[in-house]
């Protein structure tokens, strides 16, 4: 959720930057007609570079937090397994010797 909110904030900042607004107003008609040429101009804006940098930072932070969460889950799972094994061993130890059943 944090990743989505961060990216939405970046998109809002990008779309309201003076460079983008100026270009959109100036070339509103030509953006639809020229297609890729106008997209290339947008990619050259400083605001676009900041958008891309911010998104990369957001995804890097997301992956770091995701990895840390996975490691924590593995650690907790390992601890839970160790506790269950220890409880089972103690249960067997306290139940005393049992004889084998005859068939």
In short:
This protein has 103 residues and is an all-alpha fold. The chain contains 5 helices and no strands. Helix 1 packs antiparallel against helix 5 (46-95) and helix 3 crosses helix 4.
Explain the overall architecture.
This protein has 103 residues and is an all-alpha fold. Helix content is 85%, strand content 0%. The protein is built from five helices and no strands. Helix 1 runs antiparallel to helix 5 and helix 3 packs across helix 4. It is rod-shaped. 1% of the residues are buried.
Task: List the total number of helices.
Answer: 5
Unreliable spans are none
Q: In sequence order, what are the helices and strands, one letter per element?
A: HHHHH
Mean pLDDT: 75
Through-space gap between termini: 60 Å
DSSP helix fraction: over 70%
Over all CA atoms, what is the radius of gyration? 29 Å
Strand percentage? under 5%
Tell how many strands the DSSP assignment holds.
Answer: 0
Helix-strand category: mainly alpha
Give the overall shape: rod-shaped
Main β sheet profile: none
